[in-house]
Amino acid sequence: MELRRASSNFITYTVLVVWAIISLLPLYWVFTTALQLSEYHDETTGQVISYVESEPPKLYPMGIPKYFEEWGKARDAEAAGDVAQAEHYRERMDMIVEDTFSGFKTLFAGTNIWRWFFNSAYIAIVVTLGILLLDTMAGYVLAKKRFPGRNFIFWLIIATMMIPGQITLVPLFMMVGKLNLMNTHWALILPDLSMVFGVFLMRQYMLSIPTELIEAARIDGASEWKTFWKIVVPLAKPALATLGIFTFMSVWNSFLWPIIVLDNADLYTLPVGLKTLQDQNLAIFKLLMSGAAVAAVPMIIVFIAFQRYFIRGLTLGGVKE
Predict the structure, then answer these.
(1) Could you give the C-alpha distances from 238 to 92, 154, 169, 310, in angstroms and in order?
(2) What is the mean pLDDT of residues 4-16?
(3) 247 contact partners, CB below 8 Å, separation of at least 6
(4) DSSP of 200-223, one letter per residue?
């Protein structure tokens, strides 16, 4: 029995590890391409070939082994007392470092990425805070308040999740135009505040909060707002964290709607701004992947910091009334 269980666990973990590696390959490729050397001279063909587009592809940044190769030569030259040769190898080391990070250097010095980064950050933060407030209140009302048509309203809201976002693009575009919000950040913030998934998530979680606690607060004289803010919100922190992470990631990575409503380069978000780095007939992959790496860093930090809430968030939808 123990042997069978150990074998089952081994197979399960092996499959999960392999799947995790496969899932992480695109992210690894982004950083590898961003840190790859620019080009090399192929002695066989006599041509100068880009490392990024070489065949077979380079599986790691070639600057790493080349840097240590030059470092070893410099150390040997110093040991032999050849100062000039050692200095020559150290200059080559500096060139390798500069070439490795040339994509990031071009990105930060030659583009408006700081502005795009700021736009994405503050829009994502404003939308996340707004959704946390609105969806928490909506979830509380639908879970703990008794009024005619409560379930009908809830299922009506849930039904809107079945409508593909592409179908609502044109009506939403017309509404934003009539409100004179085109080419403003309000065109991104206001539509994103209507996140139905957040209502569903918060309502399901609040069903698990004991109603007796809320009634006890009312008996003690707490107002409706104080009951919500002092009792309900602290108990809903796990769900709030999960919803906040999902919302921030969704808004941060949003591309289609921002590129439709924004026409001013100073208003671009980071995904839209990175798109402008790709010329119509020319794609500088090293520069593009450098931008993609910069865009991925906040998401990686958020995921590492709040990964336990992701796991908890997967089980929240299983709570039933």
Answers:
(1) 52, 22, 32, 10
(2) 88
(3) 124, 127, 128, 131, 132, 195, 198
(4) HHHHHHHTTS-HHHHHHHHHTT--
